[in-house]
Amino acid sequence: MNIVTAIVETPKGSAQKYDYDKDSHFFKLKKIMPAGLVFPYDFGFIPNTKGEDGDPLDIIIISEITSFPGCSMDCRIIGGIKAEQTERDGNTVRNDRFIGIPEVSQLFATVKSREVLPETIMKQLVEFFKNYNQQAGKKFTPLERITADVSMQIISESAN
């Protein structure tokens, strides 16, 4: 089964970006988004994983739920976006975005794979990540959309 625990850093609709600080064990306000830019869905990380950028793997949680920083939820991985992120210093690393559906979601209860999500949601996610990174002086380059099985393989391989 493709279930992972996700920790929400920034809730859906938030114009503030929060990051979990592993040293203090608190969520810290990282930045305020430009006017009109908000997170389209809950955004967070998959604990006990480590991506190429040194941080836990990122997850965007598609649902009708609006949670809060620190909320833990079991999510069904339905796929992901393999991507590269170029930092302000020109360094490029893989920084994939995994897509999860909360196990308790009623609206998306039947969604088992990324392929059945409306194409508008996928396009909006890609555009959000491009715009979000551009505002921070970075570049987000989607490489390919991946299935739930490929996503789970990457997540398993990144466990630390």
Mean of residue pLDDT values: 95
The largest sheet has its strands arranged as 1-4-5-8-6
Beta-strand content estimate: 35-45%
How many structural domains can be distinguished in the coordinates?
A: 1
Output the CATH topology.
Inorganic Pyrophosphatase
Please report the total strand number as a whole number.
9
What would you say the CATH architecture is? Answer: Alpha-Beta Complex
CATH top-level class: Alpha Beta
- Please tell me how large the radius of gyration is: 15 Å
- State the CATH superfamily name: Inorganic pyrophosphatase
Low-confidence stretches: none
Number of helices: 2
Helix proportion range: 10-25%
Structural class: alpha+beta
- Based on Cα principal axes, name the global outline: globular
Could you describe the largest sheet, including whether it forms a barrel?
5 strands, mixed, barrel
**N/C terminus separation:** 20 Å
- List the quaternary state of the chains: single chain
What letter string, H or E per element, gives the SSE order? EEEEEEEEHEH
